[in-house]
Specification:
5-stranded mixed β-sheet, about 55% strand, mainly beta
């Protein structure tokens, strides 16, 4: 039987927005937060995809604005420049009020070197005028991979 149990990668309280101190129980990071993680494939015959989920609290966006940008970025060796790495955006979505404080990002790692070093970036919607930025809290990052074909660990690991 396949397991669909989610894997908790990170849990905490990071406050994003333009009003420090709104959430006294959360660390204030300003307009963005980025969490590095390593994705390791446990079953070579399994699918080359996994889903990362970002959970938040208090997301409220204005109608007519795009919402907060959430991205998964692959950090891979740059073949054109030995010893250098490049960022490749693998998935993006927007977090809005209608998402009920959760977004899913499907990550396809087909043809990528493994283990994969990726980061999940949450960036406040800055199309809204300064002073009206939404203040909210990022609380959890989860990996959903059927039967744990991909497992995740916080940080860039060997």
């Amino acid at each position: 039987m396949l397991s669909t149990q989610p894997e908790l990668v990170w849990q905490g309280r990071v406050h994003l927005g333009d009003e420090p101190g709104v959430y006294g129980d959360a660390s204030y990071s300003g307009l963005a937060v980025e969490l590095p993680l390593t994705l390791q494939k446990t079953d070579p015959a399994g699918p080359n995809t996994t889903t990362l989920q970002v959970f938040t609290e208090h997301v409220t966006t204005f109608a007519g604005y795009p919402g907060h940008l959430v991205s998964v970025i692959l950090h891979e060796a740059d073949p054109a420049h030995p010893g250098h790495f490049r960022e490749v955006v693998l998935a993006t979505t927007r977090l809005t009020t209608s998402d009920n404080n959760k977004v899913d990002l499907a990550v396809d790692l087909a043809g990528r070197a493994l283990p994969a070093r990726v980061s999940v970036r949450v960036h406040v919607d800055t199309v809204v005028p300064p002073g009206l930025y939404n203040d909210f809290v990022v609380i959890r990052l989860v990996n959903r991979s059927p039967n744990f074909v991909f497992v995740a660990s916080l940080g860039f690991n060997a």
